[in-house]
Amino acid sequence: MLRTQFEEELNKLHNQFYSMGTEVSAQVNKAVRAFVSHDRDLAEEVIEADQEVNEQETKLETKSLEMIALQQPVSHDLRTIITVLKASSDLERMGDHAVSIAKATINLKGEERIRVVEEDISLMGERVKSIVDAALNAYIQGDADRAREIASWDATVNQMYGEIQNKTLDAMEANKETITTGKDYLMTIMYLERIGDYAKNLCEWIVYLKTGKIVEL
Predict the structure, then answer these.
(1) First and final CA of the chain: distance in angstroms?
(2) Which GO biological process categories is it annotated with (predicted)?
(3) pLDDT (tens digit per residue) in 35-63
(4) Among 36, 49, 7, which residue's Cα sits nearest to residue 184?
């Protein structure tokens, strides 16, 4: 009976984590959309919704520590709980970076824009979101091989980061009016690059969950 109850609690923990992940993914998507479409209302939405993400992380952390203390799980069960505990912290940081992008949107008031760079940032945002979503699906499926494959996609994010950075710096040099905007572009792509890194961390936790080994992907 106790085992069944414990498994139900583990299942709930999985579902709560996935729910937090989908919320964070939506936050990243909204933040990038707000940034490239100059939508300050949408940016405000992202900032306001961050409290919900933080609360979800706190609940997951409390529940995870409670299960470790009360149930004293071993082996795979313990790894499951540790994975949720650690990976939810990575999700929370992704949410923080989405908020930073939203704040950059609000900062840009009538500044000179660089359209080609904004198009590239939009593509980079889509790429990052696809990695986050794929990592969450690999988590639900418990697929370590898929997680390894997804982690390798982060290289394209890093490449995009370098290309957009160069394009932005060139534009700033060519037109001094774009310097203020350019700084926000550079910060935004840095936040996106970090979200990609956290998604890669999530893949590493999936491998740990399945194999018991902490690896760097």
Answers:
(1) 39
(2) intracellular phosphate ion homeostasis; negative regulation of phosphate metabolic process; phosphate ion transport
(3) 999 999 999 999 999 999 999 999 999 99
(4) 36
Per CATH, the architecture of 1-211 is what?
Answer: Up-down Bundle (1.20)
| Interval 84-105: pLDDT, tens | 999 999 999 999 999 999 999 9
The single residue listed with the structure tokens 């990609």 is 196
**Separation between Cα atoms, residue 118 and residue 122, nearest integer Å:** 6
Cα distances (Å, whole numbers) of residue 135 to 73, 189, 214:
25, 20, 17
Contact 80, 9 (CB under 8 A): no
Which residue has tokens 């952390």?
61
Look at the pTM and tell me if it is higher than 0.85. Answer: yes
Give the pLDDT band (50/70/90) at residue 110. Answer: confident
Q: Is 176 exposed, middle or buried (0-12, 13-18, 19+ CB in 10 A)?
A: exposed
Domain ranges of the chain: 1-211
